[in-house]
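Hi all, long-time lurker, first post. I run a small reading group and we've been trying to get comfortable going from sequence to structure in the token notation. Rather than ask abstract questions, I figured I'd post a concrete chain and ask someone more experienced to write out its structure so we can walk through it together at our next meeting. Sequence below, copied exactly:
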Amino acid sequence: MVNTYQLTGEYKCKLDDKGRLRLPTSLIRQIGYTGILEFAINRGFEKHLMIYPKDVWDGKTKMINNLNLYNRRERQALRYFYRGASIVGMDSADRILVPQSLVEYASLGKEVILFAYHEQIELWSEEEYQKMLEQEPENFSEIADDIFGSQSQNGGGQAEQDTDE
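-- Answer (accepted) --
Happy to help. Here is the structure in token form:
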């Protein structure tokens, strides 16, 4: 059964010399700590890593595994999605080991940022995260209005009901 998460938070963390990352206690609580937690970690769309609780990862892989291997574009998407992907377990000190190839891909140093939202956690080098923040649009309210404006007019995204009876 896949859990539904609403992960939230921005956490400044440290990556040790062996590539271990201690997960913040408040983030572990949001996931629902029930013993040994497993995660999948892979490359993100930008120069960062994505960390998924294992059950979320399993759901995502079911969706992507439906792509057609005989279609070049879909095959490339499958390869990119799985490239570098690893399953990691949390140890007794609440740490996960980030594979060295992924540390190099995301240019992770000692100072890293975890950005949790929805069902996933992004792992950024502090420097790349700051660059990303500097690129945020000044007109976010306009973007939000374009995306959510019509939903608020309909009562929070619900379709209007037909009142002709």
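A couple of things your group might point at:
The radius of gyration is 19 Å.
Residues 157-165 have pLDDT under 50 and may be disordered.
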